[in-house]
């Protein structure tokens, strides 16, 4: 993503805010290139979670004592912080464990009661399993069918084919904003505009977008947008679903229990207003307060500057990797996030990743929860190097040097 920087930032000082990045692995300085899997956490997030457990630990919305009030205010404050970061209203933001939960919430609370035989769900070839499997389960229970929009070889969506697939029986489109494998940035606003013309509800997987670019969800024109907190410097088990208010008000609860009710009688229950209607039970309080701190940290840097920094790392890494004989990059879309999936002739992805780890370089290998995409490219797996703003150009060079060494070892 070609984004110009707006401020002069000392990225080495920023990197120093991440304690784990100072460690060694196998006697080598750690080069962490797996942020698309999970990001590292700055000290501000670690300290915020620690402070909650040390000084404020209590359940939310269940007690009038001081600790309970402090916990509730901190938790709801994190909701407001995240909502402002995404450009949405806080009463449209359901806090949950992440994108997988969020998409399942839409599948079971919005789609399951509405879809019927003859209806169709449209997905793209590049979707993560979390944006495929829930729709398959819903289709099995409703009699709906799954349609697939294909790609070009460079990893861009075939937009003409996608629009042609938006036929009258399609009621819902599930689409990723940024591919976790290819790095492709999809033109979500244009896609959602075409879907809305046809009355198709849109569910956007924003897991790989929210950590890496400025977001203003209302401008995208989607109906639902899901994010995952642990990919954006927050704790694991955190995330959110944004939905248009009219959808939230029309959707029945996904889970039943405490907090999501106003009144319970044996002859019936009055449910809470959204978003709390969809937040049954005790939430990950400390985690979401930590996510609020992560959002504050990202906002202090500026998402435009983060995008520019990561684009520079992506450009440098791509240029250097292309100099390695026998290396093939999977996914070369013109608009990319800082993700590079690659293969080396004669080497299995798992072997590459294992040997790179011996050099202190952490990359992911496998199908990346995207079996249909691997099938499209005719490969069982790839290695994936994913960069974040806390990485450095020196780390890119160390990664390339390690890969050259591994390449020689494998012959």
TrEMBL record:
The keyword Transferase applies. GO terms for biological process: cysteine metabolic process. Its EC number is 2.8.1.7. It holds the Pfam family Aminotran_5. Its cofactor is pyridoxal 5'-phosphate. Residues 31-399 form the Aminotransferase class V domain. It is an enzyme of class 2 (transferase). The keyword Transferase applies. InterPro entries: Aminotrans_V_dom, Aminotrans_V_PyrdxlP_BS, Cys_dSase_SufS, PyrdxlP-dep_Trfase, PyrdxlP-dep_Trfase_major, PyrdxlP-dep_Trfase_small. Keywords: Pyridoxal phosphate, Transferase. GO terms for molecular function: cysteine desulfurase activity; pyridoxal phosphate binding. It catalyses: (sulfur carrier)-H + L-cysteine = (sulfur carrier)-SH + L-alanine. Belongs to the class-V pyridoxal-phosphate-dependent aminotransferase family. Csd subfamily. Catalyzes the removal of elemental sulfur and selenium atoms from L-cysteine, L-cystine, L-selenocysteine, and L-selenocystine to produce L-alanine. This is Cysteine desulfurase.
């Amino acid at each position: 993503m070609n984004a110009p920087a707006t401020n002069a930032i000392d990225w080495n000082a920023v990197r120093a805010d991440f304690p784990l990045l100072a460690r060694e692995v196998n006697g080598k300085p750690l080069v962490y290139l797996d942020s698309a899997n999970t990001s590292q956490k700055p000290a501000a997030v670690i300290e915020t979670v620690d402070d909650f457990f040390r000084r404020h630990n209590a359940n939310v919305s269940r007690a009038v004592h001081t600790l309970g009030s402090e916990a509730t205010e901190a938790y709801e404050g994190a909701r407001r912080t995240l909502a402002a970061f995404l450009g949405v209203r806080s009463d449209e933001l359901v806090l949950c464990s992440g994108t997988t939960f969020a998409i399942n919430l839409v599948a079971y609370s919005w789609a399951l009661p509405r879809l019927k035989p003859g209806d169709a769900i449209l997905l793209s070839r590049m979707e993560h399993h979390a944006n495929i499997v829930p729709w398959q389960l819903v289709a099995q229970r409703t009699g709906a069918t799954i349609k697939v929009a294909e790609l070009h070889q460079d990893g861009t969506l075939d937009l003409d084919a996608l629009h042609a697939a938006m036929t009258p029986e399609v009621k819902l489109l599930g689409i990723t904003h940024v591919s976790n494998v290819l790095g492709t940035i999809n033109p979500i606003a244009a896609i959602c505009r075409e879907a809305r013309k046809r009355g198709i509800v849109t569910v956007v997987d924003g897991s790989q977008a929210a950590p890496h670019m400025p977001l203003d969800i209302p401008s995208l024109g989607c109906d639902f947008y899901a994010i995952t907190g642990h990919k954006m410097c927050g704790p694991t088990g955190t995330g959110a679903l944004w939905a248009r208010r009219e959808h939230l008000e029309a959707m029945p609860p996904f889970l039943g229990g405490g907090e999501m009710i106003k009144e319970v009688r044996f002859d019936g229950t009055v449910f809470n207003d959204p978003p709390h209607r969809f937040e049954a039970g005790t939430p990950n309080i400390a985690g979401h307060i930590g996510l609020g701190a992560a959002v504050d940290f990202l906002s202090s840097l500026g998402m435009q500057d983060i995008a520019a920094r990561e684009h520079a790392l992506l450009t440098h890494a791509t240029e250097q990797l292309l100099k390695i004989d026998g290396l093939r990059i999977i996914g070369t879309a013109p608009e990319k996030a800082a993700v590079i999936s690659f293969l080396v002739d004669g080497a299995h992805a798992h072997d590459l990743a294992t040997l790179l780890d011996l050099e202190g370089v952490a990359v992911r290998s496998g199908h990346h929860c995207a079996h249909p995409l691997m099938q499209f490219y005719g490969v069982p797996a790839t290695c994936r190097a994913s960069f974040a703003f806390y990485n450095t150009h020196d780390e890119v060079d160390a990664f390339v040097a390690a890969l050259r060494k591994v390449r020689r070892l494998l012959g």
